[in-house]
Amino acid sequence: MEQQRDRRLLLHHCANYAAVLALLREAGQNLSLFELGCGSGALSSAFARVMPATWSLVATDYSAALLAHARRHYPRANLCFEQLDVRQAGLGRLGGADAVFMLEVIEHLPLDRASRLLHELHRALRPGARFILTTLDRAAFSRPFSGYPPHCIEYSFRSISGRLADEAWNPFRRFRVHRLVSERVTTEAVRGEDRLGYALNRLHRLVTTLSRNHVEADRLRQQVAALVFRLYASWPQTDRFDLDAYLETLSFVRTRAEACDRSSFGLVVELVREQSEPERR
Questions:
Q1: What is the CATH number of the domain that holds 132?
Q2: Residue by residue, what is the 3-state secondary structure of 231-257?
Q3: Per-residue pLDDT of the chain (281 residues; tens, 9 = 90+)
Q4: Domain span holding position 24
Q5: CA gyration radius, the chain
Q6: Domain for residue 277, yes or no?
Q7: For residue 36, is it within any domain?
Q8: I need a surface site. Which of 4, 48, 199, 278 has the fewest CB within 10 A?
């Protein structure tokens, strides 16, 4: 993530952590936190650096290689890295958490797997604990799906709100969907996808699908993709990214979020395990 040339994408991911921080500041002074899907750990470390000193964070990922990188590069007293795969069972260890968050991961899961994850978390979390997830918002785009190969499904404000209201899909009774909005970021993202991004995503997805059942072909595809990314990332940038100008356009909307379809680029979902909430089957 930290190697991305698209600084708007970096801003999007940083804004996710800022939204989590804003929501959790209201939850208490001494919080035990778990993160699902921390990746390289760079943004987890940044979050741990600015969160209150009385909080502790256990950041988890399925990749042993990424976790080794994170432990080597981001040592902090209030942060540790552990291996956990959200696609597998074993979320019982989260039972002592005050809050769990999972940022930009749910779109990588099929709908049935995402639902199972919500049910597993609902069973594991103690009453009063929170689960916060974020994902991109497709409301402003002309297509419901970007074609990006690693994604299984992408959500809009309305589609994820409808899923969450389905008691069979989501066992948490208490939930709210917030939005990260910036007309500038959203307009530029839509323009980029319409010009060339969607076609490149579909081509990448086709090549990925064709090579999936051939080990050597898939290995070659990954090597070529990694090389292209390294070349792209190292290409000199002539334009200066004006962070302050983008930050001035960004807001975290927690009321009347349904009114932001043309300017929303991110969804922030807050679910709370209620005190007397029975397990739904």
A1: 3.40.50.150
A2: HHHHCCCCCCCCHHHHHCCCEEECCCH
A3: 555 667 888 899 999 999 999 999 988 789 999 999 999 999 999 999 999 999 999 999 999 999 999 999 999 999 999 999 988 867 888 999 999 999 999 999 999 999 999 999 999 999 999 999 999 999 999 999 999 999 999 999 999 999 999 999 999 999 999 999 999 999 999 999 999 999 988 988 888 888 888 888 888 888 887 787 777 777 776 677 888 999 999 999 998 888 899 999 999 999 999 876 555 44
A4: 7-272
A5: 19
A6: no
A7: yes
A8: 278
